[in-house]
């Protein structure tokens, strides 16, 4: 099994800063029906955590109240990570998606190279566990921001980008695949130059598994995800960028004539 060397997983591009907020609309597809059904928000804050200044990454996802009767979503993700290399220090997932509820807490101990976990979901009783902590390991939130720091221009089209993640108390050696540059036009009449890649998903309660998640990030220094498209067990879900607060650099786009 291939594990990326420690030097290979350090951030290359400083694509975000303290106070950045990203907002998305979420659209679900069931058969021939497309429904604008939810909102997603990502936020970056610097905080004091156990005696050091760290990044606190927050991700929230909510279905619109008028669709709660169909499929209610209330997702909350938190991750505290070092500023220099985005090493996760603590991670909390508290999600409710339809009838499925999940609660995970991971504590990362780099002196003992251990992860102390507290996990529970609708199908499994609460479990306390200790896992070995390997180099270049990310949780879901730190992985999102780590991908934004990659210099994708150095990769060849279809080249794999390895990434190791802890998901539901299991460690997976996954990868992204760089798919090249693409001009993306949005419904708001904006045209973005983007870098496109796919991500290998883990089969579970929502995703089918396989390279069924596509991401388009801006080709500027912000590396803002403009569109995320994922196949799920009951159709397709898309997250479309709406607006941002406190980006580190001006966002580059052209208005469609």
Number of domains: 1
CA-based shape: globular
| DSSP helix fraction | under 10%
Number of strands: 16
Number of helices: 2
User: How confident overall, as mean pLDDT?
Assistant: 87
In terms of DSSP E residues, the strand content is over 45%
The Rg value, from CA coordinates, equals 18 Å
Listing every helix as H and every strand as E from the N terminus to the C terminus, the arrangement reads: EEEHEEEEEEHEEEEEEE
Structural class comes to mainly beta
**Low-pLDDT stretches:** 1-7
The largest sheet, given as strand count, sense and whether it forms a barrel, is: 16 strands, mixed
From the N-terminal CA to the C-terminal CA, the straight-line distance is: 49 Å
Describe this structure in words.
The protein has helices at 68-71, 140-148; strands spanning 21-30, 33-49, 52-63, 73-81, 88-97, 100-109, 114-121, 127-132, 137-138, 160-167, 170-185, 190-201, 210-218, 225-232, 235-245, 254-255. It is mostly beta strands and 257 residues long. It has one domain. It has a 16-stranded mixed beta sheet that branches.
In short:
This protein has helices at 68-71, 140-148, and strands spanning 21-30, 33-49, 52-63, 73-81, 88-97, 100-109, 114-121, 127-132, 137-138, 160-167, 170-185, 190-201, 210-218, 225-232, 235-245, 254-255. By secondary structure, the chain is mainly beta. Strand 9 (137-138), helix 2 and strand 10 (160-167) form a beta-alpha-beta unit.
Q: Which key features would you list for this structure?
A:
257 residues, mainly beta, 16-stranded mixed β-sheet, globular, disordered N terminus
């Amino acid at each position: 099994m291939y594990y990326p060397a420690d030097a290979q997983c350090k951030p290359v591009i400083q694509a975000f800063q303290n106070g950045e907020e990203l907002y998305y609309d979420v659209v679900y597809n069931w058969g021939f029906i497309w429904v604008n059904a939810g909102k997603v928000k990502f936020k970056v804050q610097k905080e004091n955590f156990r005696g050091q200044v760290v990044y606190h990454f927050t991700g929230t996802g909510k279905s619109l109240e008028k669709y709660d009767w169909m499929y209610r979503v209330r997702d909350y993700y938190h991750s505290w990570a070092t500023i220099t290399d985005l090493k996760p220090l603590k991670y909390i997932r508290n999600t409710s998606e339809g009838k499925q509820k999940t609660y995970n807490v991971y504590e990362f101990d780099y002196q003992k190279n251990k992860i102390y976990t507290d996990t529970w979901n609708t199908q499994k009783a609460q479990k306390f566990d200790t896992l070995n902590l390997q180099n270049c390991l990310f949780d879901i939130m730190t992985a999102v921001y780590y991908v934004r720091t990659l210099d994708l221009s150095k990769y060849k089209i279809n080249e794999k980008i390895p990434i190791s993640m802890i998901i539901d108390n299991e460690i997976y050696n996954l990868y992204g695949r760089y798919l090249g540059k693409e001009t993306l036009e949005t419904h708001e009449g904006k045209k973005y130059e983007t870098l496109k890649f796919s991500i290998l998903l883990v089969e579970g309660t929502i995703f089918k598994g396989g390279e069924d998640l596509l991401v388009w990030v801006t080709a500027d220094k912000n590396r803002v995800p403009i569109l995320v498209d994922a196949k799920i067990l009951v159709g397709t879900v898309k997250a479309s960028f709406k607006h941002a607060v406190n980006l580190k650099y001006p966002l580059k786009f052209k208005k469609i004539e």
